[in-house]
């Protein structure tokens, strides 16, 4: 009797959304003794549910596997890695994966997300151990030297933020992880929390040690119930392992984590609104200064970083700043986790050093549109990001190149639209979304968004187009300059880019 | 949580309230979070998980227990989309209307669902079986159009697949 075959079926919620649980159940009922491991997703979402079978040649992938086809696949020799039309070959060797540089996502899809043994076997805790052997100041210096910038969208150097918190005196400090990933087209935070939660635990613990904080909060949006469950379990396991608590890895350092769940407010992804929400209040944006690094959660010095920023930290500490700094271009160092989404043939997570062109990513790796129609526009950086026309796809993926083209990289979300898209409707939606999700604190955002919808409606209806276009231009300028935060300040970005590149969509009907 | 002396006078408001069982239960939930900082949101999530909605009656109870004004509590409950003021239908269907799902037909799916169920977004069918809502992003942007049926995310939706899922829910009910 041979040992049971090990089969991987992802537990990532994208895989679950297309039937991964049913696939796992069908495989277990197929008759042969097997060991099913629920891994995170490899990030090749068009292949989900992607079933991997361990063979002498490596992990052989099959996908997309519909639950109804499991019986046939097993009969055709899936458990022996046999050839089949759904067989993708050795997963690690697929160009889509092999061409990536995975630092944040190094373990996602490979390991069982909640197995501490898997975590340690794949290099986990090396960064924290190295950090604890040095002074907090040295750890901050290492992060600064790596060139790591905030991955939540603003791109602020992480080390400088940490240094501010470290240098601000006070007995109570906090580390807050912003996991309120509300931007359409982004899902990397969710996939990391569901696929490798211990990395975030480790990154936050390093941050806590570096700045002298003993407590951390992870603020996860309520739209991500699976991520909430996985993170909570991971924290319990980490406490039991001695990775969190009163004596982290036997070093005498104290650090603990709590998960807090949002309640359906996009604005809580803005860092000061998130702090208000963590304090149990309405998610109203705070005026800055004071900055959260000095006056943050409950008025205490607070590190606020995105999931991917914190998840990059363990590797930086484990392998040293120079290794991270060696990746990327210009002032965009290291890797960015891009997310290919929307109308795309091969969507998913693609982690690579900065500098690849948007066209390469969308066409070569993403395979262009899912519908097979020509690409018309690509929105980069979430609902507040610019629409880039097809002719602009040669832009290199780095912070400054995007900024100088009037766009932004944001959280790395890339949403593709085919030639059926109505760009005036998308511009109107940007304003509608802002009106819906504005916290209401400042007038340019609260009232401006409502007026924006009305003005676009008048333009599209052919009512004094020239006058109303001028008015829309004025309104965009006012919102950009006069809003308290990025919600009102950046809503004009998709609107203006749509107007600039697709003016006919607004007025040609008349 | 440190209570200031003045809080006591607010407590008078809730003593002997019309729904003592709910009041007691809410007090117990608050007690379970006594050690947590800024615990109003976690408490509201637990109230909604238990009762299915956040009744107006809990406002003065929470205000008294947490030493907040009633306006503060009301303000928080009404700020967040998740907290309902009345119970939802037996199944809650949230259709994603964010950009990535729009690029693959989310608006058509919304129109189809509204027509099939005979209700608009934000409404519940007259028989109380389905509540239809919009949501902005479920983090399933490469497999859209996406929706959340109760807590379960579903992807690669088409009008016919949505119909089939709704029919399956109806059979289970």
From TrEMBL, chain A:
Any one Gene Ontology molecular-function term assigned to this protein's record: metal ion binding
Family under the similarity heading: Belongs to the complex I 51 kDa subunit family.
Pfam families: Complex1_51K (PF01512), NADH_4Fe-4S (PF10589)
Keywords tagged on the record: 4Fe-4S, Iron, Iron-sulfur, Metal-binding
Segments forming domain NADH-ubiquinone oxidoreductase 51kDa subunit iron-sulphur binding: 424-469
Domain of life: Bacteria
Name of protein: Formate dehydrogenase subunit beta
